[in-house]
Specification:
The chain folds into two domains: about 90 residues, Phosphorylase Kinase, domain 1, CATH 3.30.200.20; about 200 residues, Transferase(Phosphotransferase), domain 1 (Orthogonal Bundle), CATH 1.10.510.10. About 35% of the residues lie in helices and about 15% in strands. The strands form two sheets. Strands 1-2-3-4-6-5 form a six-stranded antiparallel sheet, with helices on one face. A three-stranded antiparallel sheet has the order 7-8-9. A hairpin with a 2-residue loop joins strand 1 and strand 2. Helix 3 packs antiparallel against helix 8 and helix 9 packs across helix 10. The protein is globular, with a radius of gyration of 19 Å. The protein starts with a strand and ends with a helix.
Length: about 300
Amino acid sequence: MRDPIPYGRYLLLERIEIGGMAEVFLARVREGEGAGRLVAVKRLLPTLAEDPELVAMFLDEARIAVQLDHPGVTRIEDLGRHGPTYYIAMEYVAGKDLKAFLERLSARGERLRVPVTALIATRVLAALEHAHRRCDALGRELGIVHRDVSPKNVLLSFSGEVKLIDFGLARGRGMPEDPGVVRGTGAYMSPEQARGLPVDASSDVFSAAVVLHEMLTGARLFAAPTELVTMERVAAQVVPSPRSVNPEVPEAMARAVLQALERDPALRPPSAAAFAAAVAPHAVGADAAELGRLLVTLFPEEAERAREGDG
């Protein structure tokens, strides 16, 4: 944007992303507590602000995410309405999502080192475990399931942080479900989610394994030209071992990925933590500094703008 736009107590500096439901802006707090600080403001598209169902979904994202307190989940700072529409202000993380990261690597004919893939996966799984096990004030599990674990919802920072974002489709205990309604990113859904069945934490484990398989191989696992064929692949395609594409993947890691991709939820690892425990040993030799350097190398202009913004 050529000129910053005043928006309540924020100043919208640049639109970072626009989707079918909301747009995200880099913003600066212009008054009150934290004045001058950068945040991300996610605003429901004005054309959707009169749809009660979409407004409820948008507000549910904030209500779920605000209950989470983990370094791998973006922090919610404010929820409100300004003018005709609603917004969520959240922690700003300078970086790129995993989808853009993998696409840039592929364009260069490169693939992630196995330890780096394991590092990213264990960070995502740690965030999922936190969400799955989060309890209310009475000690009851909230039963949060993300339901949209995919590369576009994993944010990597230029300093090497890994953040799970966008709880817009998440559901928790006591929240209404829509039986038979399929929502999410088709190529990363679990088979039960693709069929419109109730899902639990095991569904997120499956989705995380699809993402990990993609990082290891440099190829999308179930994606097809049409949504129908994608769903058919999710339901029935034989899943190749990541070692068949990338011989550098250790046998034990390949087994862990394939177990998490079992169609029967009962055969998958019992939790995100259990899957992380099987992957974590393969992250030895990688750290946040390496991840950050790689991101800066792939996106030098964006990294430079981020440094200027911090200044």
